[in-house]
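G., the chain you wanted modeled:
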Amino acid sequence: MSKAIFILGMHRSGTSAQARVLNLLGVELGSRLMAAASDNERGFWEHEGAVQIHEDLLRQLGHSWCDGTPLPAGWMETEAARDAQMQLATIIDLDFLSAPLWGIKDPRMSLLFPLWLPLLKERGIEPLCVVAWRNPLEVAGSLQKRDQLPQETALLCWLAYTIESLHH
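Predicted structure as tokens:
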């Protein structure tokens, strides 16, 4: 049985560093990783396809990465969620199915992790989760600097991501 490590946690909480360390220890992250940027010069270590699918789904559900409110009841049964799952299945099959140990990181996955579970079960892949933890005031300060996100909004988002990460 192969294993997949999911790096969960709020944006700016250390998920990129965790993903890179796991990668250096032999965890396959795929070949289509987001490029580094000025706000994360060492790299995000995020699968471009998964990030885009997650972003599109959140938008279709009337949310964004910094919304901070719960996803709508029944969101997993929406057509948008089913479409996202089909796209995620393709990523798993093309990029990770032959890897005995792989990982994927996108902070949005803290909210959307339930999408992945049926796909993993169908393929006999054991999910493992790592949750990034950083002081919420530090996260809020970093989000203020990067995105001009008000502290109250950033703290609400941190709470939502943290609760969902721990719940899943």
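The first helix runs from residue 15 to 24.

Shout if anything looks off.
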